Amino acid sequence: MLQLCNFINGELQPPAAGRYLPLLNPATGQVFGQVPNSDAADVDRAVQAATAAFPAWRALPAEERGRRLVRLAELIDQNLETLAQAESQDNGKPLSLARTLDIPRAASNFAFFGTAAQHFATETHLQEGVALNYTVRHPVGVVACISPWNLPLYLFTWKIAPALAAGCCVVAKPSEVTPYTAFLLSELSREAGLLAGVLNIVHGTGPGAGQALVEHPGIRAISFTGGTATGAHIARTAAPQFKKLSLELGGKNPNLIFADCDLDAAVQTSIRSSFANQGQICLCGSRIFVERSVYEPFKAAFLAQVQALTVGDPLEASTQQGAIVSEAHLNKILSYIDLAHQEGGRLLAGGQRVQVPGRCAEGYFLQPTVFEGLAPDCRVNQEEIFGPVVTLTPFDHEEEALTWANSTDYGLSATVWTRDLARAHRVAHQLQAGVVWVNTWLHRDLRTPFGGMKNSGLGREGGLEALRFFTEAQNVCVKL
Ligand code: NDP
Predict the structure, then answer these.
(1) In angstroms, rounded to a whole number, what is the distance separating the alpha carbons of residues 8 and 83?
(2) How far apart are CA 432 and CA 424, in angstroms?
(3) 248 is known as an active-site residue
(4) Helix and strand numbers, DSSP H then E, in the chain
(5) What 3-state class would DSSP assign to 260?
(6) What is the pLDDT of residues 380-438, one digit of tens each?
(7) Pfam families, per this entry (predicted)?
(8) Could you name the CATH architecture of 253-446?
(9) What is the pLDDT of residue 320?
């Protein structure tokens, strides 16, 4: 049976207390391995290794640090098939999705930040004839990177890559639910030439290893992606120690369909933005608001495509919807489907578990589910479900759509479908969302700031924002 190890000071190591947790394949319901259930002792060893490695790593020229990160990107590309298989086995996502989205994007994270470090310029402020100020950005030191289970390697590397590029050393904790690709990354990082202790990976639960990491006095900054409640808890823990915090949290994203849009494109992309990765992407648009004059045509075309989605074995090439990540999460989604019925919703599609025959008979599969007739302020339309469940709601005018779109505590992303350029900008600027897509979804440019407003988070990732986060600005003022 597969036994994962921690990666501390450049070596694969068992957890100090020898405790492990089972690793489950959600598509089969079968245990296929064990992951360390690490504790504060493992975290402390990792922080010490990172602290010892920090002076040498920060002293390397940015070009040299970057070269190793680019090498790591190449190694991820070369091992794409192994990594994609591991991601699918761990998470239940279609293998085709892991091959085309998760793993390639993990590679681009390292490729991008490998070179970005060299473009991170020092600012100067000249006071003519008086003084010259220049701003140096020093790496903050040892940082924690904590990531969730939905896009395991993709989100893990999205944090690690800028931290390393900025000259920080990292202690990272993937979700204990999906640790396999992070484990495989350990070996690849050694092969890429990262010095021992520069990247440490400690496996374990949130309350165990995660909490110990957040509390550790040697950690100077925490980059966290996960649920809003966990983010609030981490903020409370970190605040008294004045650790820098970047929090990427939950979402309940609106998808606005105006009558003048390209309806075919809107339907096509809304299928993806509703159900990609079984709806388990923080950016999925789970509240679809459609202008009343095109509500019925949109609904008919959308439902026809929902019915055609194939739910099945993630390893089958024809599968579009894989397994939900765990039985507990499946039950949570099913409880929201019950709630939607109680709140008066009309079920238009799905709503049931799917029994996949053969090796997946014990897996956690769910039909893509669509409701209509739910008030924008009901719980189903306010709370994050994080599964393949969306609601359709007609609207009569722009202000109404905007009011409803902005009516949740979240503010991560939003999508707008229109051919009216003026409206696109007007609506985008009024949406309370850190990311707005117009006539597209999940379009990615690594230079842009990424993150949420309101309860969706604090700070921004991506491009220079991420490099700034992992550095401490110091102004030097020289009298002329
Ligand atoms: P959680 O908040 O449960 O967990 C996220 C990570 O934090 C996991 O590694 C978890 O460990 C760890 N953790 C849990 N408790 C603590 C703690 N006390 N101290 C330190 N670490 C802790 O989220 P999920 O894994 O369930 O992920 C789903 C959530 O993530 C959704 O709300 C989703 O919206 C959000 N998300 C946000 C994104 C964004 O960019 N804004 C992107 C993707 C997801 P473990 O799992 O091992 O217990």
Answers:
(1) 21
(2) 14
(3) yes
(4) 16, 25
(5) coil
(6) 999 999 999 999 999 999 999 999 999 999 999 999 999 999 999 999 999 999 999 99
(7) Aldedh
(8) 3-Layer(aba) Sandwich (3.40)
(9) 98
Pairing state of beta strands 131-139 and 471-479? antiparallel
Nearest CA to ligand 1 atom 10: 206
Length of the chain: 480
Domain range summary for the chain, segments of one domain joined by +: 2-249+456-479, 253-446
And the tokens for 197?
Answer: 């202790």
267-306 in b/e form (b: 16+ CB < 10 A) is bebbbebbbbbbbbbbbbbbbbbbbeebbeebbebbbebb
Return the best residue to mutate from 43, 175, 214 for the ligand 1 pocket (most ligand atoms within 8 A of CB): 175
pTM over cut 0.90: yes
Domain covering 2-249+456-479 in this structure, CATH number:
3.40.605.10
Looking at residue 306, its pLDDT comes to 98
CA separation (Å) from 223 to 22, 125, 249, 310, 457?
26, 30, 11, 36, 11
Low-confidence ranges of the chain (pLDDT < 50): none
Q: Report the relative pairing of strands 453-454 and 410-411 from DSSP bridges.
A: antiparallel
DSSP assignment of 362-403, as one string?
A: TS-EE--EEEES--TTSHHHHS---SSEEEEEEESSHHHHHH
Over residues 30-56, the pLDDT tens digits come to 999 999 999 999 999 999 999 999 999
Cα three-residue angle 432-158-90, rounded to 5 degrees: 105
Q: Which residues have CB under 6 Å of ligand 1?
A: 146-150, 155, 173, 175-177, 205-207, 210-211, 214, 225-227, 230, 233-234, 248-251, 282, 384, 386, 412, 452, 457
